[in-house]
Amino acid sequence: MSNHTVSRKVRALTFKEGSFTASRTQVVRETPVTIVLNGEEIVTLLCIDDAPDYLAVGFCLSEGLIRDAGRIESVDVDGKAGTVRVRTSEDRTSDRIAAREKPVITTGCGRGTTFHFSVEGDIKEASDDLRIGPDDIFHLMHELTASSSLYKETRGTHNCALAEGRELLVFRADVGRHNAVDKIYGQCAMEGIPMDNKILITTGRITSEIVLKIGRMGLPVLISRHAATDLAVQLGVKYKRTLIGLVRGGKFTAYSGFRRIIGHSESGA
Known about the structure:
Blueprint: H1 3-6, E1 7-16, E2 19-28, E3 31-37, E4 40-47, H2 52-62, E5 72-78, E6 83-88, H3 93-98, E7 103-105, E8 113-115, H4 134-147, H5 149-154, E9 158-164, E10 167-174, H6 177-191, E11 199-202, H7 208-217, E12 221-224, H8 230-238, E13 242-248, E14 251-256
Parallel strand pairs: 3-6, 11-12, 12-13
Antiparallel strand pairs: 1-2, 3-4, 5-6, 7-8, 9-10, 9-11, 13-14
Helix pairs in contact: 2-6, 6-7, 7-8
């Protein structure tokens, strides 16, 4: 979708240099999208509804509700009703849906929700072949920023991209960083884009649930403008992921998976 469909102008009052001015400012449209999996309502996400099919599929995969993207039979979007209906042929999907009774309120914007059974599990092995240098890290963050037209217009989104080498392959924006990641996961699953040896770049914090998402995606490297939490670092070490944060001003901090960073002489975590 073009940006005019996911943002709109509202009346505002701007204070600058000691005085107020009536103005109109561009804001992101925040829309509820309800995901229905095999006939059962799972969750309602507040999001930018530019890719509700990718979001629904990515959410179900990253939460472990769907284990095999190849078993998805249909994805039907009803824009008027604000629903996405996903149907799969997996045998035990109903068991996973039933296990969702203890949701966890996450660190995501707007109190994101995940389910207790997705705290750990279904983590894919990450390739040790990928190597990335400081120049690559700064280049990819610059490319992410340059691609963020909706953020520049509204200052109201998180941005996320999947990269191979120094090239961005898929870019997504949303009001929530989890949603942006799930949209990328869903797009890759639905369009058959391989995720091995790829890099995820995000503007959001590196928290435990984001590390678990890249673990299920099979991605070895996560790069962010912001810092990591202690649980995220523990999971990064445990699952041998390279977590790189605070990429700004010619600096960055690597929290785990140092062996993938070119120029680092020690094998590290």
